[in-house]
Structures are given as structure tokens and as C-alpha cells.
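Protein modeling request. Please complete all fields; requests missing the sequence field cannot be processed.
Requester role: graduate student
Desired output: 3D structure, C-alpha cell encoding
Chains: 1
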Amino acid sequence: MHPAKIQLRGFDESEISKVLKRAGEFKAEIVKTKDGFDLFFEDVENARLFISKLQKELRFEKKMSTENLGFKKGRMHFLFVYSLRKI
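Delivered output (87 residues):
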């Protein structure tokens, strides 16, 4: 299981409220940053499902990257980072 972070950038207030309401369904941790909101998921599959459901409601550009979290039980552990920017 790999954790994931979704960064929301450039969305207006009404869109953010929709996103945060849906994030509650996925039990995501919500953190407000100076650039927008970050959502933290325990599993990358939940984050991918969240993004696919969100794409049906909102238009945005998606970028994916990874951050190395180090080794856990002898295996590499990554944080998947999805950046969602309003078009």
C-alpha cells in the first residue's frame, strides 16, 4: 500500500466545497496551504478513484509525480503526488 497526496490549485470556492465534500466520503485528510488544499489518502488506489469521479464533475489538468519516502521492510516506499490545476 502506497500513500498519495492530491494538490488542488486554482479552484474557486464553490468547486472547493464540492471537492471537500467528496473527499469526506474517501476519508481523506484535508490540509489548507497557501496555494490551495492538499488531500492525503492512505492508499493510492483510493486517490485514483477520487480523481476519476472528480473528472466527471470538474475540468482540470492532472500531473503525477512521486516522492521517495525511503525503505520499509527492505522495499522502497513512495508517496504518489497528483497535482490538479483548474483549466
